[in-house]
């Protein structure tokens, strides 16, 4: 049998285990051109929270009582597609299921060059988000200071490493001292701010003596209000995510930021990683090269067990991960 996780209720506020159900169906049969994949790793991502609401977005909402779409890694166990052999390891568009069906359009074969899990992290969607967001939207210039919120997560930790590689001053904001130590000692960040224990504004003033030229925003909310109050003339704000607001039942209200952008001749750009699909191979090749050269590090937090997929997803909103969060299924 094939276990899948379905959404049975649209969460209001922070999702709970009761919003989801594990169901069992027969293992799917495949047709010509398809492969059957036994899932080994499932990705859990903050953007999935947005798809649990019944509203228009850049990607359609999840349907109730249907397996939740995601991406993941698995092994081909049956193939009716000459491009894939039994035993191949693939990165694929999947659902939160133990078995998934793939086609040429949804599956990419992996080689042994780097650990397979990197395909869902630094060499996957979150790595590309960091690359395009920083280099194309942030437009960094020599000598600049960049502040990153959600700095120890999948996207933030790669943004910081690329920024260090390019020679910028990098200050990360994260939710624990352990994460902060990791960012400084392992990834080479210049300074960190623990937003749960420090006065963010005061700490940033201290760590950014030349002000803030780029703010890479993964979290939104109060943290962002405080960072934006310190931006330099001509600063760029890269609006990548707003995880602090994803569970809000109401539209959050904060300081109005447009006057600051005006007075500082600054810009704020939202973006979706898919905007850069045409340039995908550029990011994939560059990130792969940097990882192989040891210039940037890959980090994943792995939660064991298919049954723990929903708790793993919920832990994203409580800072349960460093780097990319994945669930190991088998
Ligand atoms: P992640 O950062 O690996 O995981 C989420 C992290 O957010 C947690 O570990 C937690 O770290 C932090 N967090 C959770 N609730 C918070 C809160 N209320 N205030 C401050 N920090 C909070 O996730 P990710 O996959 O790398 O994604 C990061 C952001 O980028 C998300 O907002 C996501 O939606 C967005 N994103 C956007 C795109 C795009 O195309 N624009 C693509 C991928 C991801 P702490 O311990 O530090 O709190």
The share of residues in helices is 10-25%
First-to-last CA distance: 14 Å
Uncertain residue ranges: none
**Overall mean confidence score, pLDDT:** 97
Run of helices and strands: EEEHEEEEHEHEHEHEHEHEHEHE
Task: Write down the overall geometry.
Answer: globular
Radius of gyration from the CA trace?
Answer: 20 Å
Say how many strands there are: 15
Number of helices: 9
Q: What can be said about the biggest beta sheet? A: 7 strands, mixed
Strand content: 25-35%
Sheet/helix structural class:
alpha/beta
Bound small molecules, deduplicated: NADP nicotinamide-adenine-dinucleotide phosphate
Report on the architecture of this protein:
With 330 residues, the chain is α/β, with parallel strands linked by helices. It is built from nine helices and 15 strands. The two termini are 14 Å apart. The model has no long low-confidence stretch (mean pLDDT 97). The structure holds NADP nicotinamide-adenine-dinucleotide phosphate. NADP nicotinamide-adenine-dinucleotide phosphate (NAP) is lined by residues 45-47, 126, 129, 150, 152-156, 174-176, 179, 218-219, 223, 240-244, 271-273, 316-317, 319, 321, 325.
Observed structural traits:
binds NADP nicotinamide-adenine-dinucleotide phosphate, globular, 330 residues, 7-stranded mixed β-sheet
Compact overview of the structure:
This protein has nine helices and 15 strands.
List the helices and strands and how they pair.
Elements: E1 2-7, E2 20-25, E3 35-43, H1 47-51, E4 69-79, E5 89-95, E6 99-102, E7 107-109, H2 125-138, E8 145-149, H3 154-165, E9 169-174, H4 177-185, E10 191-194, H5 200-207, E11 212-217, H6 221-228, E12 231-239, H7 258-263, E13 267-270, H8 280-292, E14 300-304, H9 309-315, E15 324-328
Parallel strand pairs: 8-9, 8-11, 9-10, 11-12, 12-13, 14-15
Antiparallel strand pairs: 1-2, 3-4, 3-6, 3-15, 4-5, 5-7
Helix pairs in contact: 2-3, 2-8
Bound molecules: NADP nicotinamide-adenine-dinucleotide phosphate.
NADP nicotinamide-adenine-dinucleotide phosphate binds next to helix 2 and helix 3.
